[in-house]
Amino acid sequence: MTRIVRVASGQGFWGDWQEAPKLQVRHGPIDYLMLDYLAEITMSILQKQKRKDPAAGYARDFVPLVVELAPELVAKGVRVVSNAGGVNPGACRAALVEGLREAETGRPLRIATVTGDDLLERLDTLLAAGHELRNMETGEPLAEIRDRVESANAYIGATPIVEALRREADVVVTGRSTDTALTYAPLIHEHGWATDDWDRIAAGIVAGHINECGAQGAGGNTLLDWEGVDLVTPGYPIIESDPDGSFVVTKHPDLGGRVTWATVSEQLVYEMGDPAAYITPDAIADFGSIKLEDLGGDRVRVSGVRGSERTGHLKVSIAYRAGWKAVGTLVYAAPDAVAKARRADEVLRGRLQRLGLAFEEIRTEILGAGACLGRDPAALPRDVRDGLPEVELRVGVRSEVRSAVDRFTRELAPLILAGPPTVTGFAGGRPRVQEVMAYWPALIERAAVERELRVEVTDA
Amino acid sequence: MRVPLERIAIARSGDKGNAANVGVIALTESAYPVLVREVTTERVKAHFRTVCRGDVVRYELPNLGALNFLLHESLGGGGTVSLMLDAQGKTFGAAMLGLEVDAPDDVVEACDRVRRGERSGRPAAG
Asked: Cβ of B79 under 8 Å from any chain A Cβ?
């Protein structure tokens, strides 16, 4: 018997389109809804929120969404898998329990939380036990920046999610599960794939990579005929998985978006490193082995995926405080917009220098004149450069010294009256001083994390 | 004929720490060998000389008719450290398509038909 399992993508990041998951549930049959909320920067933001409020530290948007959808999830038998738990899955569960009190679902919803990925509290114990957490890029031991660590999370895989599903969870809330595991854990569970069935798990990883960026896997950002894609109500991708590992990427037929060989290929190469070694906690996928077949009608078949054995380590994403920064902008209009913006930059830099402020970097970009690729406007043909109706001067600074960055934010507004002519676009006020979070990628022995993983189940 | 890469390929880019990744996908089977021949690491490094301070590494994906490039040290430190407008290299893919390549006339014409929606594109490989 061939049982096709349908896993729908509903969110590609925290802040993604809130209608998408509702449309996925309401516009056609699906079995699972995966909601990815986490990025590297998100973890440190959530830790900060949790420090201020012990009941915070998760993706708050997730709770009202699940509460609204709860009656339909039960009626249609759709299960939700999400990393919305951030650095506080327990608080997320508590909020869900509270929210679901009023929901008319006919039966309780079973909520599972996965914890144990958050290493912040255990960091000193781990270091003392000899886990050096050396920076994968520089080789330095974590001790160098230990006192500045803001968050530390191991990327965990499918095993605890599979356990939660086996215990009949309707909603699985995890912390830093990998984005791809949110899609392939349901496939492992439903198809009963063995934990060393590397090829099939690798196929699930590819499916997860297509799902993890929401609409981008179904026509968002496509460069081929982008004007022809309906992006008002895009259908996000849906994976229809066969037990043999092959799958079809599709979307609900009555929604917009597009699924073709081109849109799927574009998403496959997104954020790709070495395609032969896409490493996850559960297997290593070889993206070079992928075979695509465009079936037409927004259906693309993916097959042939090969995988290899997982490694003995998990990746740890550590964020640490690394100074301060601010970015300010002003708009200069024609004639000679570029020349005016450059003079304003000279004046600004002269004043900063006169104040004797120390910056690690001052970066000037002139938007409208090649800034996206760091091009010098001088490289533009003269008639193009001189013909620009307006440009935006964008200056950023970074420093270990907060007061220097703060002073910079007060040096932009004076240019409005004490700078080159034809300036505007300053209504936004003073630039905001932001704390810089730098990343410290490290590896840790798998067992040190996995023995602490917990799955808890509550009926709400 | 000499054409911008956009006539025969599409692309998508993103970030990997302080490196940008740029995937380039041939519009037809016959356009892939042109990519392999024309879009070399040297030419990509030169094309992105204003942002790329490190090495350019290329990976070939014949099954997908695609090349993947890693442009090291291109994002001003990456993540939130970067002061760059495009700190995630999101615009690098479209910028890559401005690279000029030599392609046989029939390859370009077949790709033009894909662009106009007169024939479907790449698959058949694998």
From this structure: yes
